[in-house]
């Protein structure tokens, strides 16, 4: 995924939706979430639908956004964002 140079210069980092602190993103609620995220100026990274054949199946989204954009998205939606996990070799 190519990061936006403008966002990178503003100090943006990658964020993932937090599946424990917020309701599940589903196919039905993605439109609202994307509208708020794009209106805030965030960049949508990857979208991971799990078992899309079933209604209300879990969807994970990654966003490239600044702290201010993250706060705006969390204020306007019920969804919370967290930093992605870091894998370190032993």
Observed structural traits:
90 residues; alpha+beta; Alpha-Beta Plaits; four-stranded antiparallel sheet; 4 strands; 29% helix; 23% strand; globular
Describe this structure in words.
It is a single chain. With 90 residues, the protein is α+β, with helices and mostly antiparallel strands. It has three helices and four strands. The chain has a four-stranded antiparallel sheet, covered by helices on one side. The model has no long low-confidence stretch (mean pLDDT 87).
Spatial strand sequence of the major β-sheet: 2-3-1-4
CATH topology: Alpha-Beta Plaits
Taken as a percent bin, the fraction of beta residues is 15-25%
CATH level 1 class label = Alpha Beta
The helix tally amounts to: 3
Secondary structure: number of strands: 4
Q: What is the count of distinct domains?
A: 1
**Overall outline:** globular
Helix-strand sequence:
HEHEEHE
Span between termini: 27 Å
> In the CATH classification, which architecture applies?
2-Layer Sandwich
Characterize the biggest β-sheet: 4 strands, antiparallel
Radius of gyration: 13 Å
Structural category is alpha+beta
Quick summary:
Helices cover 29% and strands 23% of the residues. With 90 residues, the protein is α+β, with helices and mostly antiparallel strands.
